[in-house]
Design brief:
The chain is an all-alpha fold. Helices cover 66% and strands 0% of the residues. It has 17 helices and no strands. The longest helix has 18 residues, at 115-132.
């Protein structure tokens, strides 16, 4: 019982860390921040669990517990059910701007995440660009692109269908930067198990008419012979063919068109 009460107390402290920090920074730095150090794994897990219930990017705190924060990437598995929240929080911090951290530090931290952590990071990256909405082009150029070029791991052996799906959504969300984002991530794209929603997003975005060659390349990368054919694939192909009639003779276009028609849709 005492052990469980100890754990709950640490979780509570972690969840209220920013509030304590704002009220009394010296006391918090002296008494609470050391609890986030992984020299005591059980204690650190408890306070990180509390903090990650609802983490916020508060610059003074990020500066104060920088070493504990970055070290947590090496303890990704120890974070248990909150490990995905950590990967998301780390990604948003790396997207910045975050004072006092270097590109190398963020690159090492992101690189320390396990496969699942990278999948979560890619999802956070995609969501960040989608959330930028009409400012997505600027967000890509000023924040997402530097993250992708300088922080994201370079080994394509780490690519998975889940990462591919997130990156595909990011390409579509980039609007006017669609071709540039596709070029940046294309080597990480793999067939997606259930591409129906991706194709729906692509169709609704108007990118098939605006950038037909790039839209075709994107579809070719993520669609192979999945059992369930995306319902709006035919409409995407029609838009591509109407925007650039020469693409109707492209081998990729013919393959996708044949695949779609085999479904009898």
């Amino acid at each position: 019982m005492q052990i469980e009460q100890f754990r709950h107390a640490r979780v509570l402290l972690g969840s209220r860390l920013i509030a304590f920090f704002r009220v009394d920074r010296p006391w918090t730095e002296q008494h609470l921040l050391p609890l986030f150090d992984w020299s005591n794994p059980a204690e650190a897990k408890a306070v990180w669990e509390g903090f990650l219930w609802s983490p916020r990017l508060y610059q003074p705190l990020l500066t104060a517990f920088k070493s504990q924060f970055l070290e947590s990437a090496n303890h990704y598995a120890d974070l248990g059910e909150h490990r995905q929240q950590f990967a998301t929080f780390l990604t948003y911090a790396a997207l910045g701007p975050t004072e006092g951290y270097t590109v190398d530090e963020f690159r090492l931290a992101i690189g320390a995440l396990r496969q699942e952590g990278l999948e979560q990071s890619a999802q956070a990256l995609s969501q960040a660009l989608e959330g930028a909405a009409h400012q997505s082009e600027d967000y890509w150029k000023n924040r997402a692109q530097p993250f992708w070029q300088n922080i994201w791991p370079k080994s394509r052996d780490l690519a998975t269908p889940r990462i591919s799906e997130s990156l595909t959504r990011m390409v579509i969300a980039a609007r006017g930067e669609f071709p540039a984002v596709l070029t940046a991530v294309q080597n990480w794209l793999k067939p997606i198990e259930h591409p129906d929603y991706i194709v729906h997003l692509l169709h609704e975005s108007g990118m098939c008419s605006r950038y037909p060659a790039d839209a075709l390349a994107l579809l070719n990368a993520v669609i192979t012979d999945q059992e369930w054919r995306p319902r709006e694939l035919g409409q995407c192909l029609d838009q591509i063919g109407q925007a650039d009639t020469a693409l109707g003779q492209d081998a990729r276009y013919k393959r996708l068109n044949e695949y779609f028609r085999r479904g009898g849709v």
